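Before the break, one more example. Copy the sequence into your notebook; we will annotate it together after we see the structure.
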Amino acid sequence: MNETIAQSGFWLPTTALIKGDRGLWSCYVVIEGENGTQIVEKRDIEILYTESSRILVRGTINPGDRVITQGTQRVVPGQIVISE
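Here is what the structure looks like once it is written out:
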């Protein structure tokens, strides 16, 4: 049985998930910092739907945010990163 539900959000790969506070989930995004530096920032998200290796989420991420989808165990909020 298929059911269609209209829902706004963003599709992310499950590899983008990181454990948040109090059992919630988060993801990391790269933002533009001072002097053109690229900085890691943590964003809280809510999982709306799971499908295979991707998830539909909503929360404090916005259209155009650059979400870190792999290697999240190697970065921390506030870390300066170099984009290739």
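Strands lie at 10-13, 18-19, 25-32, 38-51, 54-59, 66-67, 80-81. The radius of gyration is 14 Å. Try to locate both features in your own notes.
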